[in-house]
Amino acid sequence: MYNLGYRAIEKRILPYCTNKGIAVVGYSPFGHGNFYSPQSTKGKVLVEIANRHGRTPRQIALRFLSLHSNVFIIPKTSHPEMARENSQSVDKDWGLTDKDIEEINRAFPVSDGDNPLKMI
Ligand SMILES: NC(=O)c1ccc[n+]([C@@H]2O[C@H](COP(=O)([O-])OP(=O)(O)OC[C@H]3O[C@@H](n4cnc5c(N)ncnc54)[C@H](OP(=O)(O)O)[C@@H]3O)[C@@H](O)[C@H]2O)c1
Fold first, then answer.
1. Is the shortest distance between the CB of 32 and ligand 1 below 6 Å?
2. What is d(CA 62, CA 75) in angstroms, rounded to the nearest whole number?
3. Which of 25, 31, 61, 108 fits a 20 to 30 Å CA distance from 40?
4. Protein residue whose Cα sits closest to atom 33 of ligand 1
5. What is the pLDDT along the chain (120 residues), one digit of tens a residue?
């Protein structure tokens, strides 16, 4: 499981897999359907970044989660237009800036501690 609210795999799993050349599939990238409302404090951070790029908050989230070269994100949708929106998150003609990444890291930090990974 890998989403902005649950980045625990970044602590040990991702570095290990990167080092071994193992691909990682990140599931439930939208928090299992509980994505941030644009009115929430965290949602507003995503909206602001999205507006700077002419993108959507979900595209910002997917782009961020796809920053690691060996991670593949699998958002689920039954709507073609949403699948298109999701796939355009990794288009080559745009990208997150250092400022965007810093703001996302501040709003959605990797949690402390070293607990067993959550699974669905
Ligand atoms: N153990 C495992 O391997 C495991 C566990 C859990 C999930 N998964 C897999 O991971 C994938 C996703 O998991 P998930 O269902 O937990 O949740 P998710 O991808 O975090 O969220 C899916 C929800 O987001 C909505 N959505 C997707 N794109 C959207 C968009 N652009 N705009 C608005 N809403 C959008 C979908 O709506 P609609 O449905 O209405 O289109 C659906 O309700 C699935 O393929 C699932 O099979 C694997």
1. yes
2. 8
3. 25
4. 82
5. 999 999 999 999 999 999 999 999 999 999 988 899 999 999 999 999 999 999 999 999 999 999 998 999 999 999 999 999 999 999 999 999 999 999 999 999 998 777 788 888
